[in-house]
Amino acid sequence: QSALTQPASVSGSPGQSITISCTGTSSDVGGYNYVSWYQQHPGKAPKLMIYDVTNRPSGVSNRFSGSKSGNTASLTISGLQAADEADYYCSSYSSRTTPWVFGGGTKLTVL
Amino acid sequence: EVQLVESGGGLVQPGRSLRLSCAASGFTFDDYAMHWVRQAPGKGLEWVSGISWNSGRKDYADSVRGRFTISRDNAKNSLYLQMNNLRAEDTALYYCAKGSTTGLYYYMDVWGKGTTVTVSS
């Protein structure tokens, strides 16, 4: 049971936009602006896509954006491309005994 | 280019120990916190442990606290994870990840390819 809740799967057609949600509590997502998002292709290491809720690392496409409202953070991918098909994980700092928590992951399928 | 290369994984019996290593290059190692994150087969990511730049602060997931010990050697640009009293549920791919600052409680920005630990009799 992951600390943060994500949908198991989402899908979209090329060119469309999708949003992946990540729901936590006031002890993690809602309490801090320390939400990050990772992309993981099969058999590969995770890649940082968004940090501190809304920031993109250098080299990450501006088609990826992050936001937060209350205890729920979101990752939006616009202009879907086949290469975006991957698993996506959210992560947040937590004030509980385990300081870093992850969501269970969302499998993005580009139709 | 930042590189993290994990090693030390393998097949181990329940109750035994294993020590993982992570060799870092391409950045000033002692300027950053470091972390271990694992992924059980077919499952999601689970943060395991982290250590600040100077080893002054260490933290662990509840699931491994008291059994695992994280350490680093800044002179050797290396991170370690000593895993004792291993359980079947510790079976996973273990990633070494670089923190984004000196402190422990900031995001992880670069990950290695991982080393596999299998706990089975």
Describe this structure as you would to a colleague.
The complex is a heterodimer of chains A (about 110) and B (about 120). Chain A is mostly beta strands and about 110 residues long. Chain A is built from no helices and 9 strands. In chain A, the strands form 2 sheets. In chain A, strands 1, 3, 4, 7, 8 and 9 form a 6-stranded mixed beta sheet that branches. Chain A has a 3-stranded antiparallel beta sheet with strand order 2-6-5, with no helix packed on it. Chain A is globular and about 40 Å long. Chain B is built from no helices and 11 strands. Chain B has strands at about 5, 10, 20-25, 35-40, 45-50, 60, 70-75, 80-85, 90-100, 110, 115-120. Chain B is mainly beta and about 120 residues long. The termini of chain B are far apart. Classes of the chains: A mainly beta (about 110), B mainly beta (about 120). The interface between A and B is medium-sized, with 24 and 25 residues.
What distance separates the N and C termini of chain A? 29 Å
Spans of chain B of at least 5 consecutive residues whose pLDDT stays below 50 are none
Computed Rg of chain A: 13 Å
Beta-strand residue fraction of chain B = over 45%
* Total DSSP helices of chain A: 0
Count of extended strands of chain B: 11
Q: Average pLDDT value of chain B?
A: 96
